[in-house]
Design a protein that fits this description.
Its EC number is 2.7.7.58. By secondary structure, this protein is of the alpha/beta class. The chain is built from 19 helices and 26 strands. Bound molecules: 5'-O-[(R)-(benzoyloxy)(hydroxy)phosphoryl]adenosine (OOB).
């Protein structure tokens, strides 16, 4: 059975097809087109490996066939956690080719997050890397297998096959990624026939899941269809003027919407350019890759830009090939924005996007004042935006309100979340972004704040409710409230206000407790404040505004 999702209403779906946004082609056509048009061109550079479009296409088809041979079927789902590496794309296209929808967990996710995604997805396939601490041994894989009868195939990507963490695959019912892939013989006379057996899911159906930054207790999965996602990739590539000359450095997490489609790796493949992979945005190694591979475009979150600006003072000569830097994911101050051209020697583009869909870009020919002071305008003429006040009325032009949006690539509902969907989407299908924005007379957006209960830690999103629910599981914690605090480098960090139950637990103990629950490191509070009571609003909710004031004055709180 096809994977469930909330469809767009018929009239709008018709309009999106009529206007050519939805072309009823699967996402995998991106790769197939290039492997025919420019088979020898280099698609991916990953350390010393150079993969051409033909090789990427062939490897993903071989993996797809190997998965079919293991009983994986169309409409199955996969839980994937891979670092920035070529295998991520080989696998992504392999799954697309056989209609299996993956969710790509971030590499810094841990047990808590993976267990939750598996619970929601019931995957038949699980792929991870032994370079991640959770997969040094087979314990977690065994636990997942025990919890999910649906899980039939587990593939592990090993750093070096003969590393000291070498795996006992048979005991844990897992296989080595490359052994599985290469088991299908090359040049198989049946190859062409086998290729024709690969069938993606229908273009109007779910291709894969994005992850929501979230503001609720459990993270939500975002079903993206081939039609909507392929449109966002094509249009993003067009706005950013990608071509076969594009040499894009991907230093953000490969699965994140920014790095995958805005225009990201898929935009580069669509244009026939070259993707250069970096493990992370650490400036020294990225500068080296830029110089070595003559990279002309990259994308960063604001804290990384700060570090790049600093290093450019001494190592700027390595950046001569760089033409365009995209910045997005979190608030980017005009003070930093003005330094980009002078210090990094390239153009700046601001990107305000979300995994749920809507992406805004400043345009490449925009005047400097727009590029520095705004977060861009929607990529599509049929993106519909509403900016509403607290009573749900449209604000006057230029005033601040909460951004609601719908359009040809913005979802209509989270995966299997009926109750939450009724709050996150209005009756006309507009998604409530939770972002406080103002629109300029030219139709550009300025993100001025956030209404949602989320901390944006340098682009990494933390749902306050999720961490609060975990903290109160500690026997020493009666109430917990997580709020953002200002941080010079990260923009925001997190601070947990704790009302203790009996004996007062200390910050280090609570951090350790969250780690034993298997929570990703970036979600662990940077600061703890212990208070006797939490202030309440008139309707009895925790008054986070007051807590934020407390962190600024420091009154009444014992800090750890
Ligand atoms: C991107 O996607 P997500 O899903 O990790 O986070 C979306 C949220 C937005 O709702 C907003 O709160 C914040 O991240 N955000 C920004 C921003 N870009 C995203 N806040 C201020 N300024 C910006 N430029 O973060 C994302 C997805 C695609 C492209 C770019 C970013």
């Amino acid at each position: 059975m096809a994977i469930e999702f909330t469809p767009w209403p018929e009239d709008l779906a018709h309009l999106y097809r009529q206007k050519g946004y939805w072309q009823d082609r699967p996402l995998s056509t991106i790769l197939q087109q290039q492997s025919q048009a420019r088979p020898e061109a280099i698609a991916i550079i990953c350390n010393e490996r150079h993969l051409s479009y033909a090789e990427l296409d062939a490897l993903s088809s071989r993996l797809a066939q190997a998965l079919l041979a293991r009983g994986i079927e169309q409409h199955d789902t996969a839980l994937v956690q891979l670092p920035n590496c070529a295998e991520f794309y080989i696998l992504f296209f392999a799954l697309l080719k056989i209609g299996v929808a993956p969710v790509n967990a971030l590499f810094n996710h841990q047990r808590h997050e993976l267990v939750e995604y598996a619970r929601q997805l019931q995957p038949s396939l699980f792929i991870a890397a032994t370079s991640h601490a959770l997969f040094r041994d087979g314990q977690f894989v065994t636990q997942l297998r025990r919890q999910h009868a649906s899980l039939s195939t587990v593939l592990l990507l090993q750093d070096e096959p003969a590393s000291p963490h070498s795996w006992d695959f048979a005991t844990h019912g897992a296989e080595d990624f490359w052994t599985c892939l290469t088991a299908t013989p090359v040049g198989d006379p049946e190859g062409a026939k086998a290729e024709s057996l690969l069938t993606p899911s229908a273009a109007g159906q779910v291709a894969f899941f994005q992850l929501s930054g979230g503001s609720t207790g459990t993270p939500k999965l975002i079903p993206r269809t081939h039609n909507d996602y392929l449109y966002s990739v094509r249009r993003s590539a067009e706005i950013c003027r990608l071509s076969s000359d594009t040499r894009f450095l991907c230093a953000l997490p490969v699965g994140h919407n920014f790095a995958l489609s805005s225009p990201g790796a898929l935009g580069v493949f669509h244009a026939g350019g070259t993707l250069v992979l970096a493990a992370n945005p650490e400036p020294l190694s990225c500068f080296h890759l830029i110089a070595k591979h003559r990279v002309n475009m990259t994308a960063l979150v604001p804290p990384a830009v700060s570090l790049w600006l600093k290093l450019a003072e001494t190592h700027g000569a390595q950046l001569v090939s760089l033409e365009l830097l995209q910045v997005g994911g979190a608030n980017f101050s005009p003070a930093l924005a003005t330094q980009v051209q002078a210090k990094l020697g390239c153009k700046l583009q601001q990107v305000f996007g979300m995994a749920e869909g809507l992406v805004n870009y400043t345009r490449l020919d925009d005047p400097e004042s727009l590029v520095i002071n705004t977060q861009g305008k929607p990529m599509c003429d049929d993106d519909e935006l509403r900016i509403l006040d607290e009573a749900g009325n449209e604000v006057a032009p230029g005033e601040v309100g909460t951004l609601f949006t719908r359009g040809p690539y913005t979802i209509r509902g989270y995966y299997l979340s009926e109750q939450h969907n009724s709050a996150a989407f209005d009756p006309q299908g507009y998604y409530c972004t939770g972002d406080l924005v103002r629109m300029t007379p030219q139709g550009y957006l300025c993100v001025v704040g956030r209404g949602k209960d989320q901390i944006n830690r340098g682009g990494e999103k933390i749902a306050a409710e999720e961490i609060e629910a975990l903290l109160v599981q500690h026997k020493g914690v009666r109430h917990a409230a997580l709020i953002p605090i200002a941080d010079a480098l990260m923009g925001e960090k997190s601070c947990a206000f704790i009302v203790s139950a009996t004996t007062q637990p200390k910050g280090p103990e609570l951090r350790k407790f969250l780690r034993t629950l298997g929570v990703a490191d970036y979600k662990i509070p940077d600061r703890f404040e212990f208070v006797d009571t939490l202030p309440l609003t008139a309707v009895g909710k925790i008054d986070k505004r007051k807590l934020k004031q407390l962190t600024q004055t420091g009154a009444n709180a014992a800090r750890i």
